Amino acid sequence: MTSQMKPVLTGGCQCGAIRFALSAAPVKVSICHCRMCQTASGAPFASFADIERGDFTWTRGKPAAFRSSSIAERDFCSQCGTPHSFRRIDGPRIEIMTGAFDRPDRLVPSRQYGTESRLGWVVAIANLPSQTTLQNYGPEKLDGIVSHQHPDHD
């Protein structure tokens, strides 16, 4: 991505040490339920935006990497631990975790993979009782929380 191009999407880690930008929309957005993605994300599934490497750049910092298999590496922030990506070694694209984007609402999955490991309860989560953060904590407690998270913008 050249410095003259306005980024299409941006994102980064929790502490702000790592930031990234895209110059074009992702090729696809997907969810992976495989056991390796569950473990790497610490969640029941991982969601990724698949991006051509030429359309992606790290704009602040450089992530650490873990070779999670014989074919792939996963990038993460060595300071705060935020997971960032899945990359096939020598592959043409990088898959960035959608939760690391400043506007994850703009990345709607269209496919699912690794469904042999999908947890049975995942399909019903939209129907569970829910609360906003304000409803969960209450205004008094929420007002007293000091976030150390980098804002969702530069």
Quick description:
Helix content is 11%, strand content 31%.
* Order of H and E elements: EEEHEEEEEEEHH
**CATH level 3 topology:** Metal Binding Protein, Guanine Nucleotide Exchange Factor, Chain A
Integer count of domains: 1
User: pLDDT under 50 segments (min length 5)?
Assistant: none
Record the strand order, biggest sheet: 6-7-8-9-4-3-10
CATH hierarchy class name: Mainly Beta
Ends: how far apart? 17 Å
Number of strands: 10
Mean pLDDT: 94
Q: Helix count, per DSSP? A: 3
Provide the β-strand percentage band: 25-35%
Assembly classification: single chain
Q: What level of helicity do the residues show?
A: 10-25%
Search tags:
mainly beta; 3 helices; 11% helix; 154 residues
Q: Explain this structure to me?
A:
The protein is mainly β. The protein has one domain (9-143): Metal Binding Protein, Guanine Nucleotide Exchange Factor, Chain A, CATH 2.170.150.70. The chain contains three helices and ten strands, in the order E-E-E-H-E-E-E-E-E-E-E-H-H. It has helices spanning 35-41, 133-137, 139-143, and strands at residues 9-12, 19-22, 28-32, 46-52, 56-60, 64-66, 72-76, 83-88, 93-97, 111-113. The strands form two sheets. A seven-stranded mixed beta sheet has the order 6-7-8-9-4-3-10. The chain has a three-stranded antiparallel beta sheet with strand order 1-2-5, with no helix packed on it. The longest helix has 7 residues, at 35-41. The chain is globular, with a radius of gyration of 17 Å. The protein starts with 8 loop residues before the first strand and ends in an 11-residue tail after the last helix. The model has no long low-confidence stretch (mean pLDDT 94).
